[in-house]
Amino acid sequence: MRVAVVGATGLVGSKILQVLAERDFPVSELIPVASEKSVGKKVHFKGKAHEVVNWQQALERKPRVAIFSAGGATSKELAPRFAEVGCTVIDNSSAWRMEPHIPLVVPEVNAHVLKPTDKIIANPNCSTIQMVVVLKPLHDRYRIKRVVVSTYQSVTGTGKKAVDQLMRERRAAVGKMLQDEKILPAEITLSAEGEMAYAYPIDLNAIPHIDVFLENGYTKEEMKMVNETKKIMGDENIRVTATTVRIPTIGGHSESVNVEFENDFDLDEVRALLARAPGVIVADDVKSLTYPMPLYAHDKDETFVGRLRRDESQPRTLNCWIVSDNLRKGAATNAVQIAEYLLKNGMLS
């Protein structure tokens, strides 16, 4: 089982290597792939160092499966090349998600759409993944009419540059406080300046702008949630509206989700349905202050849901709070789960 990881040196690529090892995916030969500037570097997998190669060298080694996390432009160019040599590509970018002939898959929700002939498979947007894992069992039981979602997304979703920006700003803020308290010498230079991932500071801030703005006033990230939800759930009649916000957290994305159903529901039944749902953990006990937070979701594969309550402003409507580690279930773990499903069902030729 020759496995290529394209974008192996990035945040998600590193997490893919970690998840492959943790879940003991049967990798007989790891092929880490990255841009030319990273070729020759070493990545570690199961205690061994592996040299990073370019995509041409990777193709020569004929991987059976390739997990891509190298951006949309790279995926558009290289995924077909890998598919042409018989490799099954699982792509983390947005490049292929809305192509009608490309399956967009969250294994707990719609793995049944996968076929042995699928050579390019799209991994959904991180925010969409965690939401549909929770929505699926509720849709099956009550039929969803409309979803209103607001996200609170970790800087790790942007990448290393964003994490560096947050940490730089945080160090400068703490340093300034220490100087004001005369704990740190005033002559020490403190600066939050450096390469910016965002148009504004992210520390002590919330930026309602993820990806580019579109003509309709929504961002691309928001429209991803709208369109991908319908495709994954297999129901174009579900209405979705989204507002996506970047906040200075590390560990996972959070979502406030308001769901209107066609049929009424019982809260105890909702909790029971979610407790039985694959990949979902119900954390919902306000008496003990139990609710999902990025702090608890970090480095876990499950999606956590809590703050379950009726919307008192209109009938048949549920409020909930959903949190998941965006680098794991939102990217790496979901991709590896797709590979596991393909392998289990004899679809990796």
Could you describe the 3D structure shown?
By secondary structure, this protein is α/β, with parallel strands linked by helices. The chain has 3 domains: 2-124 and 331-344, NAD(P)-binding Rossmann-like Domain (Rossmann fold, 3-Layer(aba) Sandwich); 128-158 and 206-326, 2-Layer Sandwich (Dihydrodipicolinate Reductase, domain 2), CATH 3.30.360; 160-196, no CATH class. It is 34% helix and 21% strand. It is built from 10 helices and 13 strands. The chain has helices at 11-22, 55-60, 72-84, 107-110, 126-142, 160-180, 220-233, 267-276, 294-297, 328-344, and strands at 2-6, 29-33, 42-45, 48-51, 65-68, 88-91, 120-122, 144-153, 239-246, 253-261, 280-282, 303-310, 317-324. The strands form 3 sheets. The protein has a 6-stranded mixed β-sheet. The protein has a 5-stranded parallel β-sheet with strand order 2-1-5-6-7, with helices on both faces. It is globular. The relative contact order is 0.16. The model has no long low-confidence stretch (mean pLDDT 96).
